[in-house]
Amino acid sequence: LALWGILMTSSICLRQTDLKALIAYSSVSHMGLVTAAIIVQTPWGLTGAMTLMIAHGLTSSALFTLANTNYERTHTRTLLLVRGLQLAFPLMSTWWLLTNLTNMAMPPTINLLGELFIISTLFNWSSPTIVITGIGTLITATYSLYMFLMTQRGSISTQFRLLPPTHTREHLALILHLLPLGLLIMKPALISGLFT
Q1: What parts of the sequence cross the membrane (predicted)?
Q2: What pTM was estimated for this model as a whole?
Q3: pLDDT > 70? residue 193
């Protein structure tokens, strides 16, 4: 049921037009992996669940922070209306790219470590689960790229030509989300050594 939930919520993400709803459903999808790992009750599964929960907590919070910075300037969360923000905020676009790559569990993020632990655990428990987790991972990559391209690429709307600039506090908040994700991969035992 947890794996089926991953497929359903990931598929819902592909149809979202509201940015915050997309991020919220993305979180539910990732927690499906955590739920499946906890249910299997193996040391690797619990380690992967703990790692992914901490990693996704930072990643999802960073995505919500980015969505809020967009909303404060454009006053809309509709993806079709907020295209091309890379032209207005190139540094914020870099944060969007890094956070979406982390959401996709690209190396060398701690998210990848957590997902590998969980996928290995599920495969050892029942080999057909590799198909479902593989499809879920593919859909996750698809909606993460969709979110990045819809918000950052394309031509900016004429109503958004004069947007207020980003603030240092917003960049600091994103550094405080992404820096721990980068540092934890140097010593993952800080969060994953609890059950090994």
Answers
A1: 21-40, 46-67, 79-98, 130-151, 172-195
A2: 0.91
A3: no
